[in-house]
Specification:
- The protein is an alpha+beta fold and 147 residues long.
- It has a single domain, classed as Gcn5-related N-acetyltransferase (GNAT) (Aminopeptidase).
- It contains four helices and six strands; from the N terminus they run αβββαβαββα.
- A six-stranded mixed β-sheet has the order 1-2-3-4-6-5.
- A hairpin with an 8-residue loop joins β1 and β2.
- α2 packs antiparallel against α4.
- The longest helix has 17 residues.
- It is globular, with a radius of gyration of 15 Å.
């Protein structure tokens, strides 16, 4: 998919009523992290929701920002009854451990084109969003109480 096609896709997707997007910690006009989620884009029919993007700048990682963003998206997906959920990651990404630590189950693997190249991607799923919500809330509160 070309850059223009991707931009057009995201512009339309972000206007869907069940799609949520959160941006955090804008410092000096620069976005530190963001998350987007909504109805499933790719994966088995049994998944109704998908976290379509989760990103935190490397210098801001391990500060709880990713968990807070994930918490907001999970809450919104729960509120829209988009469960169970799925999230895709590059197979070679060292950040997959984030999903594993949150109890995500590896459920699929395929190839996705990025520009002219195809890369292996893997999917993690959470069948019970209530459990994921509680895990995230507990970790966020524990971090806040340790300050």
């Amino acid at each position: 998919m070309s850059y223009e096609d991707q931009a057009k896709f995201w512009e339309g997707y972000l206007q869907e009523p069940q799609v949520v997007s959160y941006v955090t910690d804008i410092q000096g006009g620069r976005v530190v992290g963001f998350v987007t989620g909504g109805p499933k884009l790719q994966g088995a029919e049994k998944y109704r929701g998908e976290i379509t993007a989760l990103y935190v700048r490397e210098t801001f990682q391990r500060k709880g920002i990713g968990k807070k963003l994930m918490f907001l998206a999970v809450k919104a997906l729960k509120d829209h009854n988009l469960r169970p959920i799925i999230i895709w990651a590059l197979k070679e990404s060292p950040y997959r451990v984030f999903y594993e630590k949150l109890g995500g189950t590896l459920v699929d693997e395929t190839l996705r084109a990025f520009g002219d190249q195809k890369y292996p991607i893997v999917a993690y799923s959470w069948q019970n969003l209530d459990d994921l919500y509680k895990i995230l809330l507990k970790e966020i509160l524990a971090r806040a109480n340790s300050r």
